Amino acid sequence: MTATFKNFIDGEWTAPSTGDYFENRNPADWNDLIGRFPRSGRDDLERAIASAQRGFARWSRTPAPLRGQVLQRVGELLVQRKEEIARAMTREMGKVLAETRGDVQEGIDTAFYAATEGRRLFGRVVPSELRNKWAMSFRRPIGIAGLITPFNFPLAIPTWKTFPALLCGNAVILKPAEDVPHSVHLLVEVLLEAGLPPDVVQLVHGQGSVVGRAMVEHPDVPIISFTGSTETGSRIGETCGRLHKRLSLEMGGKNAMIVMDDADLDLALEGVLWGAFGTTGQRCTATSRLIVQAGVHDRFLQMVCDRAAALRLGAGLDAATEVGPLIHEEARTKVEEYVGIAREEGATVAIGGSRPVGGALERGWFYEPTVFAGVRPGMRVEQEEIFGPALSVIRVQDLDDAIRVNNDVRYGLSSSLYTRDVNAAFRAMTDLDNGITYINAPTIGAEAHLPFGGVKQTGNGHREGGWEVYDFYSETKVVYVDYSGTLQRAQIDTYGE
Ligand code: UN1
Fold first, then answer.
1. Rounded distance from Cα 279 to ligand 1 centre (Å)
2. How far is the CA of 444 from the centre of ligand 1 (A)?
3. C-alpha distances in angstroms, 321 versus 25, 27, 324, 434, 462?
4. Please, which residues have CB within 8 angstroms of residue 40's CB and are 6 or more apart in sequence?
5. Catalytic residue among 250, 368, 384, 385
6. In a mutational test of the pocket of ligand 1, which residue from 93, 99, 153, 288 has the highest number of ligand atoms less than 8 Å from its CB?
7. DSSP character at residue 365
8. To test the ligand 1 pocket, which listed residue (444, 452, 464) has its Cβ within 8 A of the most ligand atoms?
9. Which of 81, 111, 300, 388 is the most exposed, fewest CB within 10 Å of its CB?
């Protein structure tokens, strides 16, 4: 009997008005059917919005420290259910268990940070330029936040959006990626068990082109947060611009690791394997370019190829697996297309470049870890996001060259530099054009209590995580209190005397 899942709308687990469902299958074994999930329609969304408005009216008046207590409890429940959720996540998303445990842990960290923010959520009191007058700011909730989340961090990224939105007093509507609906289903269970009023969270499964789009276009959803492709983000941005919505976009990356001649190569090797092939390269922060200084290029390339070729592919629930499958066939085909493009452009496929053959791997969306050598700046495999286990290696002469190559792409999420030279490190920290730079660590490893996001076409200026995300989910209100008993004219009475 196949499990059939429901939406969570208006305080109830409810079947979609369309009566239509889609299948959720294990990417490591497509014979493993996880369940059927609602392919919802506009009516479902309309009901979710109406309910969320009622939820917002109440929740926005709940004191922030009490909202924080709910998130504290959410964190505690996630701790209790960590292993169960991680296993469910590996089954539907494919990445190895160590990584899905990390994904849940990121949700836990985000919850506990949000909980403490309930007792801060600072405004400011500043001196007024006039006597006997106070000037201050505080934060107000905004309304309903429509959250459109990706497949690659099935729990962590929904929590990055949901927890600060809730802490700030908003209601949320979640539209998870169709590939990972179960993880978000479990998150909603946790939110409800923690005591969140049921109409404050709504879960509407379905297609981005139907549910996501209707949410973006709906006048009663003033906040949209989206993580996904730059192309979809641009379309969302156009609509939100027209409707004057508050929008946070987290999109593509083409992140580079730079390895200088003086680097600790063994350390850099561990870093690049983890950065490029962890999560099967399906991270916004994946290391997809390796920029190596000429003096160590050939040696380091050989080291990377030797180790990458030996990485063990398999189902993420198997303890011996190092690299899981891609999320679906289209993702695998995309990697394959780029292998062809790399060859046409004159790069070499140093290792990988094919689907593994034989055995259980043929029942999943597996692809061999792939390294492109002899890549030159400007080639498509050097410029475009592949979102798979493919690494482009570029030779450079010096740090200036490396920084130029790093910066000469349309994206700007993360970057990394391996060196023992402190001057080089500080130059790179200043000049690498990215939202996040790592020194002697790979391009991934963001922590929940620091702002996360990128420059250029990776984002639109907002950050997730850390203290900055609370600016996105709240509106600043300024209040002046004049207790002088006289009309005091700003800019005139102070300076005009
Ligand atoms: C992403 O790359 O899609 O940086 C998110 C990391 C994670 C988050 C990555 N904590 O390692």
1. 10
2. 6
3. 19, 14, 7, 32, 36
4. 7, 16, 17, 18, 204, 205, 206, 210, 211
5. 250
6. 153
7. T
8. 444
9. 81
Rounded Cα distance, 336 and 273, in Å: 20
| Cα 400 to middle of ligand 1, angstroms | 27
Residue 95 resides in a domain: yes
- Is residue 284 flagged as an active site residue? yes
Task: Indicate which atom in ligand 1 lies nearest the CA of residue 445.
Answer: 11
Task: Provide the CATH number for the domain around residue 120.
Answer: 3.40.605.10
Q: What's the whole-model pTM score? A: 0.97
Q: Which of 284, 368, 382, 384 is catalytic?
A: 284
393 near 416, Cβ under 8 Å?
A: no
Please check whether residues 234 and 347 belong to one and the same domain.
no
Each residue's pLDDT expressed in tens, for the chain with a length of 497 residues: 799 999 999 999 999 999 999 999 999 999 999 999 999 999 999 999 999 999 999 999 999 999 999 999 999 999 999 999 999 999 999 999 999 999 999 999 999 999 999 999 999 999 999 999 999 999 999 999 999 999 999 999 999 999 999 999 999 999 999 999 999 999 999 999 999 999 999 999 999 999 999 999 999 999 999 999 999 999 999 999 999 999 999 999 999 999 999 999 999 999 999 999 999 999 999 999 999 999 999 999 999 999 999 999 999 999 999 999 999 999 999 999 999 999 999 999 999 999 999 899 999 999 999 999 999 999 999 999 999 999 999 999 999 999 999 999 999 999 999 999 999 999 999 999 999 999 999 999 999 999 999 999 999 999 999 999 999 999 999 999 999 999 999 999 977 55
- Domain presence at residue 153: yes
For 25, the token pair is 């299958």
Cβ(392)–Cβ(382) below 8 Å: yes
User: What range defines the domain where residue 54 resides?
Assistant: 7-251+459-478
Task: Based on the residue annotation, tell me whether 305 is a catalytic residue of this protein.
Answer: no
Residue nearest to atom 11 of ligand 1 (CA): 445
Ligand 1 atom with minimal separation from the 106 CA: 10
- Total domains in the fold of the chain: 2
How many other β-carbons are positioned within 10 Å of the β-carbon of residue 485?
A: 7
DSSP letters spanning 171-183: EEEEE--TT-HHH
CA 465 to ligand 1 center in whole angstroms: 11
Residue 496 inside a domain? The answer is no
133: how many CB neighbours lie within 10 A of its CB? 15
**Cα–Cα nearest to 373, from 306, 309, 297, 261:** 297
In a shared domain, residues 288 and 244: no
CA of 157 to the centre of ligand 1 (A): 9
User: Which of 101, 230, 414, 452 to probe ligand 1 with, by most ligand atoms within 8 A of CB?
Assistant: 452
Both tokens of 5, joined, read: 């899942």
